[in-house]
Write a structure and sequence with these properties.
- The chain is mostly beta strands and 154 residues long.
- It has a single domain, classed as Pnp Oxidase, Chain A (Roll), CATH 2.30.110.
- 8% of the residues lie in helices and 48% in strands.
- Strands 1, 2, 3, 4, 5, 6, 7 and 8 form an eight-stranded antiparallel sheet that branches.
- The longest helix has 12 residues, at 73-84.
- The protein is globular, with a radius of gyration of 20 Å.
- The protein starts with 14 loop residues before the first strand and ends in an 8-residue tail after the last strand.
């Protein structure tokens, strides 16, 4: 059995949305997003063992989204936080669906996202590249609304 190259998912086919209160912001200006769930582990020393066993004791969610520098949406949220002290959270919906692939689509939801930092303003007169920015964030819940089906192979 072999993995079919047509089942590989093109990242260019993804869609992403930030949902803040009742507003849904399509992130068509995003270049990339990667979110990681990391288990927090604690040591469990035991008599009679020379190694130190580990046990899961929670998790942490964090990620980075790279966007073209063409929106004030996140800067406005951060500005409101600076002015009022009221923090903000939003959900990120990420849909991976490549019509060529036979594995279907996956819809992941990163819940309770909170930005770590933003670029307040930017320019670079020495570069031919388009301006972009990285938005590091944390999240506090995770869900899969749709899941890929298993690749069938050949």
């Amino acid at each position: 059995m072999y993995f079919r190259e047509t089942d590989a998912i093109s990242g260019k086919q993804a869609k992403a949305y930030a949902v803040f209160n009742d507003r849904q912001e399509e992130l068509f200006y995003a270049k990339s997003l990667e979110a990681t769930i990391e288990k927090n582990k604690v040591d469990v020393p035991m008599l009679g063992r020379t190694n130190t066993a580990k046990r899961s004791a929670g998790w942490t969610g964090s990620g980075t989204m790279t966007v073209y520098y063409v929106t004030s949406f996140f800067r406005q949220l951060m500005r409101d936080y600076i002015k009022t002290g009221k923090d903000f959270w939003f959900d990120l919906h990420v849909i991976n669906e490549d019509p060529t692939s036979g594995v279907g689509k996956q819809t992941a939801v990163l819940k309770g996202c909170n930005l770590d930092s933003i670029i307040a303003t930017r320019f670079d007169a020495t570069s031919d590249d388009m301006l972009e920015e990285e938005l590091p964030f944390t999240f506090n819940d995770y869900d899969l609304l749709d899941q890929f089906s298993s690749p069938t192979g050949m």
